Amino acid sequence: ILNVEQSPQSLHVQEGDSTNFTCSFPSSNFYALHWYRWETAKSPEALFVMTLNGDEKKKGRISATLNTKEGYSYLYIKGSQPEDSATYLCASANQAGTALIFGKGTTLSVSS
Amino acid sequence: SQTIHQWPATLVQPVGSPLSLECTVEGTSNPNLYWYRQAAGRGLQLLFYSVGIGQISSEVPQNLSASRPQDRQFILSSKKLLLSDSGFYLCAWSAGGTYGYTFGSGTRLTVV
Questions:
Q1: Partners of A49 in the beta sheet?
Q2: Cα–Cα distance list, A42 to A107, B31, B64, B89, B101 (Å)
Q3: Segment B83-112, tens digit of pLDDT
Q4: Strand ranges (DSSP E) for chain A?
Q5: CA-CA distance, B40 to B81, in Å (whole number)?
Q6: N or C: which end of chain B has fewer CB within 10 A?
Q7: CB atoms A89 and B44 under 8 Å
Q8: Mutation test of the interface with chain B: which of A43, A48, A66, A95, choosing the one with the most B Cβ atoms within 10 A?
Q9: Which tens digits make up the pLDDT trace of B15-73?
Q10: Is the peptide bond before B18 cis (omega within 30 degrees of 0)?
Q11: Which residues, including other chains, have CB under 8 Å from residue A60's CB and lie 6 or more apart?
């Protein structure tokens, strides 16, 4: 069974702080790694899909890196804002690449 | 553009009653379809996925079943609900491969 772990479980930062979260996943039979942002009372929204070892993706102040050989990905938020408050989910595809297995998420709270 | 509809938004059902949650996708054909559940204090758990009409894969044994009677329709059912079926149910679709998922708005199910 594919097991995706995320840390920390929750995080509280001040506006302007930079922060990062970790996602670990099995490195064998790797297919793809996804990051999603899930805001309260909304549906999860896709941030990044990463497939290549060493891949780095960026969207505004948010970026992510991928290490498929050691099975981890980092999500970085530069200069956190209150609107960044959400749960950040990572997910790894199953061996067939037909479904995503999600971690439990990291809940970020940004205070102004 | 593609849209995904999921209903109802909230549902309170007694133990032992049946369940039917419906999800439909518009603006695409032959999507991969998914049902996830988030139980209290837990992460998103994959319940079922489908890569085509009549093709259903179950990730965990449970009191639920899924059907895909039409290309863009995915139904989650139960003959007799248990208290442990309470949770937040999310439907999602994907074009497959390394495309991201688009989630519906979710159904909050409370079994009493």
A1: A34
A2: 14, 22, 25, 13, 14
A3: 999 999 999 999 988 889 999 999 999 999
A4: 5-7, 10-14, 19-24, 33-38, 45-50, 56-59, 62-67, 72-77, 86-93, 100-102, 106-111
A5: 17
A6: N
A7: yes
A8: A43
A9: 999 999 999 999 999 999 999 999 888 889 999 999 999 999 988 768 899 999 999 99
A10: no
A11: none
Residue B62: the pLDDT is 80
Q: Which tokens is B70 given?
A: 């039409």
Interface test with A, best of B44, B59, B90, B108 (most A CBs within 10 A): B44
Written as six digits, the tokens of B78 are 């139960």
Cα–Cα separations (whole angstroms), residue A75 to A12, A14, A69, A87, A89: 15, 17, 17, 12, 10
Residue type, B7: W
Query: Cβ contacts (< 8 Å) between A10 and chain B: which residues?
Result: none
How many angstroms away from the CA of A63 is the closest CA of chain B? Answer: 16
Residue A42 structure tokens: 């909304």
The whole-angstrom distance between residue B57's C-alpha and the CA centroid of its chain comes to 12
Residue position matching structure tokens 């929204």 = A45
Is the distance from CB of A1 to CB of A63 less than 8 angstroms?
no
Q: State the sign of the Cα–Cα–Cα–Cα dihedral A26, B76, B2, B11.
A: negative
**Cα dihedral value A29, A105, A81, A61, nearest 10:** 0
